[in-house]
Structures are given as structure tokens and as C-alpha cells.
């Protein structure tokens, strides 16, 4: 009996084992990143068991598992993926950047650090965040993606200048742009345009960028010392990965249109308004005579009385349909010792403003070689050539968008097809046909680097970087172009700026007893830059067939300058972690700069920060809801050195008097001149819930800029108008909130979202002697935001007589404002009304993947800013002059009792055209910044033709804008000036481009 029982148990065990082996299967597959590159070193584990493996050099794996079990794929910095084992023997996986971002590795300057252990505030974007967005400038792809980071493009020109503000504006007279660092090399970021500002970083192609880390608080940026006051943007280019060579390509083509058009008066409506305006000013008989003369001139002899007149759409001639074409190719791979990345890219963009276009080529080579276990070295090298067809700045009569001032009565072209020269203002089509303005930018950027490891915990890095920015401008204005009376005029410039930088630093890393972790960096850096500029102007050309400056019979102007600067720096940083729970960091940098006075040439910038990972404590570690909680705080100082290269010195210039050479003083000396000092305090919380499916950050900061670099007026007896001094105090105070969610995580359906919103209050705290500084329509005043609008306050229209009214706003004895109204703008007083910078900015991004389809979009918003339409005094002036008018002028006051905000039409009457809040508008908006829809063909189809991954997609940029702003675009600003005060001014500024693009990317 006992033997029978043993036999039965043995039989049951064998059956059970057979059943188990029958259900167990061998799974193979490949793991790819978001761009289709194979990923080596990915951990593949069977959940709940000890069975695991790693992908090989070609991203392939093999593992045994049973049906119904779950495979878990993990890789640092990427989102963990899970796949249930079914009947399929092959399971391929695409891994994307981790939404929670807690395990990401961020670049912090001269090193890296896990975001989980970070005590600073650093925003990280990866290549997937900026990929396939149809915009030629990579900065545009950052909009709405990082909390507290505002991205502003000046206008819709393809080369338009771009400003990035990190936690508000930190300076009045010095630069406000962040420091850009490409692979450890601080980039030249100086606008070299002789006309409207252009973006110097257009030379960087988005396809070569692996990640962008934005250092926002002082603890993070203090390691860059005197140049970190406005934040630091660290750009890291792509590297090769060990394994079989991977080829990636992308091709796309799209069309562009203006995001918004405005409504203007037709020829008939224009004649009605101007006739009424003339009669109101001169009476019935004289007024009609004035109007009829005007209409006869504008219609150029056409029978306008009988309706035989032109009805030209000048706006449609200025703003046209553009196109964007992109193509890029990269090859990457490597073996155990060498990795490489080669890429090339081409962009061709025809802008939405007639005559504005850009063509760019890029190439990059990144190579790293490990000679042995101790020594490795490599080099990064890139070249780009950008050609831009330029148009004049917004304040030029020949710029295309000023054509909207032309009445529709005027013909754009003559019967012979030539542009009509007999228009009210200069016909920009003559400039477009008989003149050109071209810019070519050639840029070479490279770095050679080496690393030697003396001990397992001690290594030495040495880098040598070089950045060459070489730009030429050539323009020719032919004899048939407007305002040309010199038989042609030519202009040529060349400017070359080169920057050398060498960095040498030691890094010591030590882990003790799995409790203590120490990371110390100590080093020095030297940066030297030179700039050489030349220009020449000539007139009297034989004919328009000769357009180079060498054909000019007379040279009328020329100039040449040479300048240089140098920085010598010593820096140190130490990180200490106790049980990965208690975190401490300190950094210091001492900078010496040739730009500052001999008595203050060196400055020291220090920072400290600390963090506490509460979720590692016993009282929280067992929580089923809370996954991660860290409190951090930081304090630090950084500086601002973005001023002239010889700003502290007394300078002399050359002068010619009756053909005799001489010199004269041009700048007063200030040997005490030194850096602006930006002191910032930050308190933040990083959180994660439900296995980090909900994660994010909450930060509060105070950022104070002391010793503002400011031009202070001098007595006339000094012989100088101003001198640059360190005076004044500016404060930014704000809150940032980030919420990342993994809403759905299924085998064939994932949905992730990210929300960021930031509030910033900017206040001028101190000015020289407490005195206001008025700059056009803007003011610097203690207690107000920087460059607040300073205007007469418009009070509407007198219902009895149609007069424009203004609030008097004089100061009453009790300190209140006198709110009486007057029709005389000279009797009214200017007051502060709004500011050009928003109080709130935010963004919302959603990424959804269902089977082989993917869908993503980003909304961006700004709230609280104002914009002043300086062109409104001509465009919306109720018939004050001959300019065509916006259609809202049809609701003008016409008889007693009319209630409206548009005064009575009066030709030359200046009724309501004073610069006032009538032309001040809110600039709040919400914009669908980018949208992307794609489909990836199944691998069983693509692999038959040797393609690992093939995806077709539709992408859109600036697809939708929701705003109450009456002008073209709430983001457009005048490019006639590049000062900070002009950033709130709209003056015939082109709207942003809305682009639709179709593309395909594939990987071999």
C-alpha cells in the first residue's frame, strides 16, 4: 500500500513538472529607445522570481518564463515597461523617458547626478521632448515644457531673436539671457545683426540634441559663477552606444501660415471714413475737396467715383504661405572600446513674411575611445552654415508688414507687372524686387576631452573647447528701390568671434559602508574670446547688374573694431549623502574677468543646499500611497558679467577734423565696477505617489539682483553723459508647480501627462537716488515691475461731442488720484498701467500610445502681461491720417448720444491719438504649441525590408491660439530695438508662423 502511494505521488509530481515545462517558454526580443535605437544593458526580469538577464550590445535578450508571468524592463532614466507573457515567442519593447523623472540623470556642470538625490532645481528635457517639432530654432521646442522658463520669439521672421527668461528678468542694464553650454562649452550668444535682431543659436540643429538641462536656482548655477545669474541651459549632444551600427533618418515637409490675420477697411469703407474725417475737420466743401484729391492720388487715375478702383489686399501681399523642409541622418554605434555618432541635417524654411527665408546645413561627429581601464578620450566636432534672406526691421517703411498702412485704393502693381511706385508710402514690393539683404553664418564648435582614472575613486578630466561664430552680411539697394537716389547703395559687414576654453578638474567619489556617499569636484577654467568686426558702405554703381561693394564708385562709410575678454576661474563642489536620505551640497567659484575694474576684478560666488528624503524614513517607508517625498532647500549667489568688454575703462575714440586725425574721450572710467550679484533662496518639495505614477515638484524662491549695472547720468561739466555703475536692486519672487502623471500603463495603451505652472512677481526695489527712469512708454520705478508701462490713461469718448477723454490723474492733497477727465492730453498725467512680463506661465503636455499609434500635444499659456501697440496710433486712429484703418474704427462716434470707445473721425485732428492706454492691451494667451500624431508600422512588415522601425507622422506648430489681444499676435514684439524695455512693444510686428508638417522617420 505504501509503495502504491509513493508511485502515485511520483506520477503526480512528474505530471505537475510536465505541465510546468509545457507552460514555460523561451522569450526573445529587442529593446529600443524612443528614437528606435537598440538599447544594450537593459534589465529584463520575471516578476516575482530571481530570473533576469540583460540585453546584449545589440539590444537583444533571451529569457525563460511561463505563460501568464510578467516581464519587467528597467533602464536608468527610462520608464519601466511591463509585458505579460502570452503565446508570442518574440516580445519587442520601446522604452521612453521616465515620466516621474525621479531616476533621471541630470547634467549639473562638470558632472552628473541622479535627480532622486538632487538638492537643486533642475528641469530636464530629452530628445523626445523636442523631436519632430517643425521649427528651425531648438529654443522654440522648450516652450511650455519647463516650469518657470519663458520662451519668447520676437516675431514671425525665420531668424527672429529668441529670449529665454528663467524665473523672470534679473537685470536692468546687463544681459538677461541664460548662459548656454554645449557639451561643456559656453556658447557665443551675441546678436551680430546690423538690423533687426536674429537668433545666434539658429546654427544648432534639434536632431543632434540628446538632452537639455536647465539650471534654475543659484545652488545649481553657482558652479558657473559670474555667468549664471540668468540661469544655465546645458545642451548635451547625442553619443554612440555600444553595439551594432544604427542608422536613423527623418524627412518631413510642411507649410506655414500666419497664426492670425487682422481685418482692415476695404476701399469703399476707407473712402467713407476719410471723407467723414475730412468734413469733420474742414467742413463740407473743403473737406470733400481734400478727400477727393486724396482718392484721386491713391487710385492713380482710376475712376474711383464709379467704383472702378483697386481693392488691394496689402496684408495678403506681405504675409504669404511659407514652407518648411527638414531632413536628417545619423549613424551611431560602437564596440567595447569605441563609440561614435555621426549626423547631418538640412533645413529649408520659407517664412510667412514675403522675402524672408533660411537654409541651413549641419554636421556633427562625436567619438569616444577607451584606451584601457584608466584612460579614455574623445572629441566632439560640429559645423553649420546658415543662409538667411533678410528683411528690414519693423520700423522701416520698406519692411513688408508696414504695407498694411497702404489704403486698399492703391494698386500694388502697374499694368506692366512692375510694383507701383505711386503709393502713399514706399511700396515694399519695390524693395523686394530691387534690393536684397543676405546673412551667412558659419559656425564651428568642438571639444577634445580626456579622462584619466588614477584610482577607482579618483579621476582627472581635461577639456579643450573652441567655438567660432563667423557672420557676413551683404545688402544692395538698387536704383529703382524706394528712397534711392545714389545709383545704388551697397553695404557689407563681416564679424568673427572665436572663443577658447580649457577646463581641468579632479573628481573624487567614495562610498563607505553603503551609508556614506561623497562626491567632490575641484578644478579651474580659462576662457578667452576675441571679436573682429568690419563694415563698408558704397554708392554710385554702374548699374544694378553690379552689386558687390567693389563696384561702388564712392565709399561713403566704413568701420572696424577689435575686442576681446578673458575669464579665469577656480571652482569646487562637494556632495554628501547619508544613507541616500540626508543630502548636502556646497559649491564655490572664484571668477576673474577682464571686463571689470582693476579694484574688483575677482568675485567669489558660493552656494549651499540640503535635502531630506522623508520617504526613506521608517514612518513613511511602508506607505502604500506615498512612493517618494523629498524636502530640499538652497541658497546661493551667482553673477552677471554681460556688459561691454571694456566697460570699466576710460576710453578714447578717433576723430577726423578737417582731414586731421585726433582723439576724444568716449567713456568715463570706473575702476570699482564689478558684477551684479544675484542671490537666490529656494525651498522645494519633490513628491511621488502610487509607485511614482503621480510625481512632481513644488518650489518657492526669492531671487534678488543687487548692484545692478546701470548707466547713471553725470553732470554736463564732466564731458560724459553717463557712467556705468553698480547701483539698484531688483527682486523676483515666485512659486513653481509640476505634476507628472502616468494615467494608463497597459501593454498596448499608455497615457502620460505633465503639467507645469509658475507665478513670478518682479519688483524694482532700489534705483539711483530713488529717481524714476522713463524710457519711451516704459518706466523704472521703485515698487513697480521692471519696465512697467507709463502712459496716459484713456477714459473713452465724450458722448456729446465725440472727443477722446483722458483721466487727469493728478495727485490730490490726500494722496489719491484725481479721476476727472479732460479732452486735452497735455492736461493729463501719465501713470503706471501694466507690465510687459507675465505673472503666470504654464504648460500642459500629453503623450498617448495605443498599439502602433502615438499622439502627443503641448499647450502653453501666459497670463498677466500687457502689450502696447505703438502702431495703433496710425492703424486705429479714427481717420487721423491717410493710413488704412482697422475695421473696429467703423464703430466710431458719429452723433451725440453714441456710446463707443472710438472717438469722432477728424483728419489731422489728433483726436485720441496720444500715446495712452487706448493702445495698451492684455497679452494673455493659451496656445496649442505643438501636436504630433504618428503611426509605427508593425516590425513583422518593416523587418522584411531590413528596417527596424518605420514611423509616419503629422506634426503641427502653433496650431491654435486663444487670446483677447486685438493685434496680430500676443507674443510678437518690435524688432526695431533689442532693449529689455522694447519687449512689450508691438510695432508692425509679424505674427508667429503656424506650421503643418508630414514626415517619416526610420531606423536600420
Q: Could you name the key traits of this structure?
A:
1004 residues; mainly beta; 52 strands; TonB-dep_OMP_SusC/RagA_CS; 5-stranded mixed beta sheet; 2 domains; transmembrane; membrane; Immunoglobulin-like; Maltoporin, Chain A; 22-stranded antiparallel barrel; TonB-linked outer membrane protein, SusC/RagA family
Query: How many domains in all?
Result: 2
What is the C-alpha radius of gyration, as a whole number of Å? 32 Å
What is the arithmetic mean of pLDDT?
Answer: 90
CATH evolutionary superfamily of the largest domain: TonB-dependent receptor, beta-barrel domain
Give the terminus-to-terminus CA distance.
Answer: 67 Å
Question: Can you count the helices?
Answer: 10
CATH class of the largest domain: Mainly Beta
Structural class: mainly beta
Number of strands: 52
Report the CATH topology name of the largest domain: Maltoporin, Chain A
Strand residues, percent: over 45%
Low-confidence stretches: 7-22
The biggest beta sheet is recorded as:
22 strands, antiparallel, barrel
> What percentage of residues falls in helices of 4 or more residues?
under 10%
Name the assembly state. Answer: single chain
Overall morphology: globular
| CATH structural architecture of the largest domain | Beta Barrel
General description of the model:
The chain is mainly β and 1004 residues long. The protein has two domains: 2-94, Immunoglobulins (Immunoglobulin-like), CATH 2.60.40; 243-259 and 319-792 and 830-870 and 915-1003, TonB-dependent receptor, beta-barrel domain (Maltoporin, Chain A). The strands form eleven sheets. It has a 22-stranded antiparallel barrel. Strands 10-15-16-13-14 form a five-stranded mixed β-sheet. Strand 34 and strand 35 (722-726) form a beta hairpin. Mean pLDDT is 90; it is low at 7-22.
